[in-house]
Structures are given as structure tokens and as C-alpha cells.
């Protein structure tokens, strides 16, 4: 995949792609790239207003973009279920699901269902959404893919199953690292469970964007009211970050490239894995802990109330 860019994406005519967090950052860039290749893109956004504004902006550069903006609040299980129901009513199948949306290093908050916000949005919301959409993914013709966005900061994450919701103590970066580690444990375990059942036309691939200049870095400082941290992020993004467009390349590769492999981890291959063209990479040993992956899976099904019925696929 040396030197791969979004320019090498194949035609996606006739395919349906779902992107969470599609109105900004990596999700926006991914949505535009998918639309440019002819896909019908469902923009799953927490804010319909911001989603529609983003869709209008994309149509300025991709005049025939087929975009469907729908509300999907990953911090609300009832809302996720309603989104999935609406999608299945409107579409015959889903070819690509990009579990992209996320929050990073924010003050402690809880989702509508009482989950710590970073774990709730970054992992549990996507776990529920993927479970609901499995039948639609299987209903698509040919191969379909689930792409889960993690982060290099998963390497600092630890699964604290005794205090998963950070109720006894909260550190915003520890919680973020745990949520990104959970993304990888989920992505790899999903691929194993698909393989065990001989489901070879549905792939689960993980990725990370490196250091990309997006709005994600600024939500934490903004919600903390820290002008110093805001200024620091602005400087770091200007000096170190690659563009959001380039940051989306690993996700786009994982979603569309013929050489992408289920159960693999894709990220930028340049300076300190922070920028450059995508390549297969090694994630942390903790992310490959199958016992933790099984435990997280069981806990996630219990917390979300979304069982994965593979036998019905």
C-alpha cells in the first residue's frame, strides 16, 4: 500500500456507506471522498443542523453527491436504535459502516444511559450501532466492511473493569485511552467471531488517523474553559498535524482497498505513525488480549442491551 492516497479509491457506485460523526473532521473528509466515488453516504450526526450544513458544503465540491443526513446521537441508546430502524426501512443493505465519531479528553460527563461519556460514545455507542446494523451489512451484495476508528493513544489505555465508568476516579486522558483501547478490543473480537462462524464476506478492520488537524482536539479545552490548553492545541496542530483530509486516509483504505484485511490495524506510516500514507501496523499487546476482549464484549452486550445474533445472519 506504499504511497496510497484517497485518489486510489475504487468506484463506489451503487454502494451505501454509513459514517458516524460525518459533519466534521475525519468524518467530513471521509464522507466527501466516498461521495466523490459515487457512494450513497448516510451522514450519521448528533446535530441535524450541523449535518445539513456539512452536506451543503460537500455538494459545493461534489455537485452530484448522494447524501442522507440522519440524526444519530451515540450518547443515547434509544436514539441509536431509532437511527438503525430508520436506516433499515430506507435501505436494502449497508456496504460500509465507519465507526468514526468520538470525543476526546473532556471533563467527566455521562450519556443519557449513565455511561461515562468517552467510553459511552467512543465504544458503547458504536458497539450498539454495529449490532443493530449487522443484518443490513449482511444483506448487501458482495463484501461489506466495518471500520472502527481508534487512536495511537490506545497504547496508554488500560481496561479498568472494576471501575469501567470512572466513577471512583476520573482522568480525562486515562478515560480516553481506555475508550480507544476498547475500540480495538471490539474490532478484533468482532473479526474473530465472524471468522469462527465462517462469515468471510464481512470484514472488521481497525484504523487510526495519526495526528490530524480536526475539531476533536479542541472540545476538551473548550468545555474545560482552558484558554491555555486551547492555544497549545492550536500551536501543536499547526506545527505537527497533517490535514484532516490525510488523516482520513487510513479509514478510507480500510473501507475500500482490495488489499485491506479483516482483523488488521491501519495507520499513517510516516513520522512516529502520526502522518503519511496508510500501512498495516502493530497495536499494543493489551489490544490483542483475547480474554479482555471477551470480557468487554460480554459487558458491552449487558450494558447496551444489544446482543449480537450471529446465527441469524
UniProtKB/TrEMBL annotation:
Q: Gene3D superfamilies annotated for this entry? A: NAD(P)-binding Rossmann-like Domain
- Region (Disordered) residue ranges read 274-293
Q: Does the keyword Oxidoreductase apply?
A: yes
Q: What Gene Ontology molecular-function terms does this entry list?
A: oxidoreductase activity
Q: Which InterPro entries match?
A: NAD(P)-bd_dom_sf (IPR036291), SDR_fam (IPR002347)
Keywords noted in UniProt: Oxidoreductase
The superkingdom of the source organism is Archaea
Signal sequence span is none
Query: What's the protein called, per UniProt?
Result: SDR family oxidoreductase
